[in-house]
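Below is how a single chain appears once it has passed through the pipeline. First comes the sequence as given, then the structure the pipeline wrote out for it. We keep one example in the README because the format questions we get most often are answered faster by looking than by reading.
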Amino acid sequence: MMFFRSSANRLLAGGSRTLSASRLARKRASFSPPLGGQVRRPKSTAAAMVEGADWDKYEEDKNINNNVDNDDATAIVNSIKFSAALPSVAYLYDDHGSELFEEITRLDEYYLTRTELAILQKNANEMVRFVDENAANDDDESFATPRTFHSSLIELGAGSGQKLHPLLDAKEKIPKSLSSSSPQEGATMCTYLPADYSSSALDMNVGVYNANRRDVQPYHGTHESALAALHVRRGRKTWAYLGSSLGNDVDPVPFLKNLAAHCGPRDRVLLGIDLAAHPDRKPVKMITAAYN
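Resulting structure:
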C-alpha cells in the first residue's frame, strides 16, 4: 500500500514522497466512465450526495439496474470496436454486481480484502499523521473556522466502505490541537465521501457510517465524475483508491494523470496495489484461486 503527498499536482513525475505500509488489495472495478455516458440520479437516499452537486445535469433514473439507455448502448458498441474489445467494467457493478462482489470478498480464497484491511488497522496511526502533516500551515481555506482544520477522505469505488474505518477511528483519537496550547483551538474536522457506481452499495455504506455517527456524504457516479465534482471541496483531501483496482485498467496512466490533475498542492493519495507472486510469500496458485 502506498501513500503519496501531492506536490504541485504531480504524482507521476517523481514529485511525491511515499509512505509504505505494504502494497496490496482487492480486485475491484476501475469504474472508467462509459464513452458518451452520463451519471444518473439514483432513487436511494444516498442521492442527497454532495453539497452543491447539480443533478439537473444528469438524466433521470428510470431503472438503474435493468435498463441500458441509448448512451450506455452507444458506449458499449463503441468500446467493442477497439482491439481490446473491453466495455467499461462499470457496467458490471450495478446493484446486483456490487452485492455479488461483496460476497466474493468474504470467500476464504479471496485474501485481498482481509489483508488490506489488516494493513490499514496496523498502520492507521502512522497514516493519519501523514494525512494531517503540517496541517496548521495549510492555506486559510482549509479552516472552517479560525484554527479549525477541515479535511476530506474520498474513497473511489468505495463499496461497503469497511476498509477506511480504521483511519477514521484513528483520526478521532489524535490530539485535537494543531500546535496550539488551547484544546479549543485547532480542532480537526473530517468528512468521509464514498464514491461508487452502485446506489445500493452507497446505501449500505451510509447506514454503517451513520450508525457510528460519522460525517458521511456519498457520491453516486464514476471515478471521473467524482474527481470533477469533489476536487473543489475546501481544505485538504485524501483520495483513497484501494483493492488493487488500478490493475483493472488496460492502461492505468490516463486515470493516474486525471487523478493528479485534480489533486490540490497538499492533497494525499492512498493507493492499494497487490504484490506479484512470490515463491515464499504468495505462490501463483494462491493468486489464481483468488482472482478466478
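The domain at 2-291 is CATH 3.40.50.150 (Rossmann fold).

See the next section for the split statistics.
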